[in-house]
Specification:
191 residues, Immunoglobulin-like
């Protein structure tokens, strides 16, 4: 009996193809589909600075950078932060998504993922010094920045740049690492 090798190879290849298709479509009962662990960027429309004086009476003022319609729409509304010279202030930063109803407080996620985030404060002049007072929950030697104290020294006009850095797996206190989730610049007057 003579066997046609081409026919045997064709049958073998067809069997392998059908087998691979069946195995790829077969549902594994042990296969639990999990959502990918992707830390997608949230929409941040508003950055609020809740600034409290240390003087008596204890007064809190809110200043904000607000751009609800995002880049390319209307110009953002930017408050000028006004502080007194030679004072210390306590500051809480809130990140909000005001495009949602109810408003989404992104700061809660930043705090929960403190090991992956860092707020970077960059005053344009040394008349403002920022000290971060909250830390990474996994590594208390690494700053977070949602809570800080600001010290003013002299009368001046300057800018304050705030960047929220996303640093999953690379956070070590270096403000240059990672992606920037949001960056705002506010004018600041020390009177």
């Amino acid at each position: 009996m003579k066997i046609d090798n081409r026919k045997s190879i064709g049958i073998l290849m067809m069997t392998m193809l059908i087998g691979s298709l069946l195995s790829s479509c077969k549902k594994d009962n042990n296969d639990v589909t999990k959502p990918a662990d992707i830390n997608e960027s949230e929409l941040i429309t508003t950055v609020q600075f809740k600034i409290s004086s240390t003087d008596s009476p204890f007064v809190t003022h809110t200043f904000q950078y607000r751009d609800v319609d995002g880049i390319g729409g209307n110009a953002p509304v930017i408050d000028t932060i006004k502080l007194s010279n030679n004072k210390v202030y306590y500051v809480e930063v809130l990140f909000l998504d005001e495009s949602k109803n109810p408003i989404d407080t992104i700061s809660n996620e930043v705090k929960a993922e403190s090991k992956d985030h860092l707020l970077v404060f960059e005053p344009s002049d040394t008349s403002l010094t920022v000290t971060i007072n909250d830390f990474d929950t996994n590594n208390p030697s690494l700053p977070l920045g949602l809570i800080s104290s600001w010290s003013t020294s002299s009368v001046n006009q300057l800018n304050l740049k705030l960047s929220l850095k996303h640093q999953p797996g690379i956070k070590n206190g270096d403000p240059t690492k990672g992606e920037t989730d949001v960056e705002v610049i506010l004018p600041l007057i020390i009177e």
